[in-house]
Amino acid sequence: MDKCDYIQEAERQLSDERFYKKLDTDPTPQFNKEITTNLKNMCEQGHIDEDTFKYLKPEKSKPGRFYLLPKIHKVNNPGRPIVSANDHPTEKISEFIDFHLRPHVENLPSYIQDTTHYLKKMESLNPLPPETILVSLDVTSLYTNIPHDDGIEACREVWNSRNTLHPPTECLIQLLTLVLKCNNFVFNGEHFLQVNGTAMGTKMAPSYANIFMGKLEQRILNASLHQPLSWFRFIDDIDMKWDNTEQELNLFIHHANNAHPSIKFTYEISDSKITFLDTTTQLRDGNILTDLNRTAIAKIELRV
What we know:
This protein is α+β, with helices and mostly antiparallel strands and 304 residues long. It is built from 10 helices and 12 strands. The chain has helices at residues 3-14, 28-44, 50-56, 91-106, 115-123, 148-160, 169-181, 205-222, 246-256, 297-303, and strands at residues 20-23, 64-70, 79-84, 133-139, 184-187, 190-194, 230-234, 237-242, 265-270, 273-276, 279-284, 287-292. Strand 2 and strand 3 (79-84) form a beta hairpin. Helix 4 (91-106) packs across helix 7 and helix 6 packs across helix 8 (205-222). The protein is globular, with a radius of gyration of 21 Å.
């Protein structure tokens, strides 16, 4: 990608004050100190042991690095924003949060691990009613549109459901909050802070987004008069089989798009073929036939 175009696209995104704040100085030393103090207190209170404290304590920290992955399948190739968290003060505590979130992600009814898991789910649905509509939904910019309070509350709910509350839920919430609110990075020699949502690039981001979406989708489904035949989700991509009318489907999608102020869905529908997780799903005589899109192997390998 041309360097000038790349920088222009990055600056366009970083100028959006809903998500990013430009800084005059590097706050990394301050964040490093704040995280270390919190970890030390947790260790002294017996919530984490000495070895865990030493592992999680940030050392030789530096700001995150902002970069873009151009979306070559979209008009004008907008960039997908990534913040590399290698050696960032929150790198290790983000890994710790992910460790304590991941089991709850795998217990979500909609959970899809990867393409192979999806294919097995599809096999279990055969045969489908002949009038089934195939639907693919996508959450618009999920990571940056998760409000901190909503994401934290969703995590608190699943952590409070644990059989053993160790570490205590509030300690995990404290670390999660630090990951979300200490997300500083540098781009083209300038310092920024992400003030809303979470960044792709920090370890806990996929699990965090999954937990948030798990709570939201249950609210959507529970409040809907008509239920989909199936609902499977891979982070922000949703595969749905709908066996009611198309008019009722439009009402359902309208309902989903009004369930949360910052979460919106785009969608595609078909009565014969649709693509989800780079797998082409065809409906023929009530049976689902699935073929892997061989042109997207690299994309699938990256996701898995």
